[in-house]
């Protein structure tokens, strides 16, 4: 019972603590980068379903029964995506270096902690593979954000049809 409660407390902290920082980023930045954070988290949720089927990792999170660890996806991953874009968008090399650093920390020391606590465990996937996937996804979503902003600029600069 103690181990289950420890896992539950750890999972709750993973969701709550990152979201406590969101008001510090400002409303404008939050809404500006909300589409890209939502998109990548939807993508990770679908990927988690595949990962469960292929046994790449196993989710043992008491808050997220099933194959998707929502405490990770909706907590640190979601909020980190928002913050990384807020702090680095517009400077791709800074964005990429920040992502490579944080993805390394996520794939190695943090993943080891989550395995030790019993939240999840890599099975057929190696930590280095997860790192490569995260860096690749970060490059992809930078392009996604660029397209979102380009679309918004075009919409705002086009003449109104109601005039």
Quick structural summary:
With 163 residues, the protein is mainly alpha-helical. The protein is built from five helices and two strands; from the N terminus they run ααβααβα. A two-stranded antiparallel ribbon has the order 1-2.
Low-pLDDT segments, ≥5 res: none
Coarse structural class:
mainly alpha
Give the biggest sheet.
Answer: 2 strands, antiparallel
Residues in helix, %: over 70%
The number of helical segments is 5
The separation of the N and C termini measures 66 Å
Overall shape: globular
**H and E order:** HHEHHEH
Strand numbers in spatial order across the main sheet: 1-2
Give the overall pLDDT as a whole number. Answer: 90
Strand content: under 5%
- Radius of gyration, in Å, reads 18 Å
Number of strands: 2
Q: Can you walk me through this structure?
A:
This protein is mostly helical and about 160 residues long. It is about 75% helix and about 5% strand. It contains five helices and two strands; from the N terminus they run H-H-E-H-H-E-H. Helix 2 crosses helix 3 (about 70-90) and helix 3 (about 70-90) packs antiparallel against helix 4 (about 90-115). The chain starts with a helix and ends in a 6-residue tail after the last helix. About 20% of the residues are buried. The mean pLDDT is about 90.
